[in-house]
Amino acid sequence: MAKRISLREFQSQLTARLGSAQRGETTRALLGVESGKGDDAYWLLDLTDSGEIAPLSAVGGLLPVALTKPWFAGVINIRGVLYSVVDFSAFRGGEPTPRNADTRLLLVGARHGINSALLVTRTLGLRPPADLTLQADSVSLSNPARPPWFGQPYTDGEGRRWQHLRIQALLADPAFLDIAA
Q1: Residue 177 DSSP symbol
Q2: Distance (Å, whole) CA 144 – CA 66
Q3: Does some domain include residue 1?
Q4: 3-state SS of 9-75?
Q5: Using one digit for the tens of pLDDT, what is the confidence trace for 102-152?
């Protein structure tokens, strides 16, 4: 049985590991997040690209922006810096992310000079690459070309499918940058 820790301990440990990853003090680890439902709900981000994680309820009001696409959730002020917020599930064509106590903002663009955040259902902690099995890239006839921000697919020990998210490619994707309705 896994050791139970409090949410505060988990967030403290995760923050410390994110900081050490940004300083290059750790081996490659991946942050697991859940966004949406179905086969493409589980995503992996490189720690160096994941940036800060903030509970939606703790950062104040998310302000909607008129005349934008439905997946553009709005803008938010975090410590005096405005971030554009994209509902990652809705951006991929899924249901809008429910806004509750588990909902998180991933501030993903700061490392690349872009103040952008992804709204996700919840974070699932760190996933060591050694615990994941790389899968053959499955491009099907119904989906012959995937966006460039889709990285390699993986499965974990429980058979759960994970998709690697290439943040830099996402931030450069014209579809991601075009928020006008």
Answers
A1: H
A2: 34
A3: no
A4: HHHHHHHHHHHHHHCCCCCCCEEEEECCCCCCCEEEEEHHHHCEEEEHHHCCCCECCCCECCCEEEE
A5: 999 999 988 888 999 999 999 999 999 999 999 986 554 345 578 999 999
For residue 53, count other CB atoms closer than 10 A to its CB.
Answer: 19
Measured distance CA(84)–CA(72) in Å, rounded: 8
* pLDDT tens digits for range 90-100: 999 999 999 99
Let me know how long the chain is.
181
Structure-token pair, residue 125? 């902690």
Asked if residue 133 lies in contact with residue 11, where contact means CB atoms within 8 angstroms, the answer is: no
Q: Is residue 103 part of a domain?
A: yes
> Does 2 reside within a domain?
no
Contacts of 163 (CB under 8 A, 6+ apart): 40, 42, 43, 44, 150, 151, 153, 154
> Which residues are CB-contacts of 157 (< 8 A; sequence separation ≥ 6)?
131
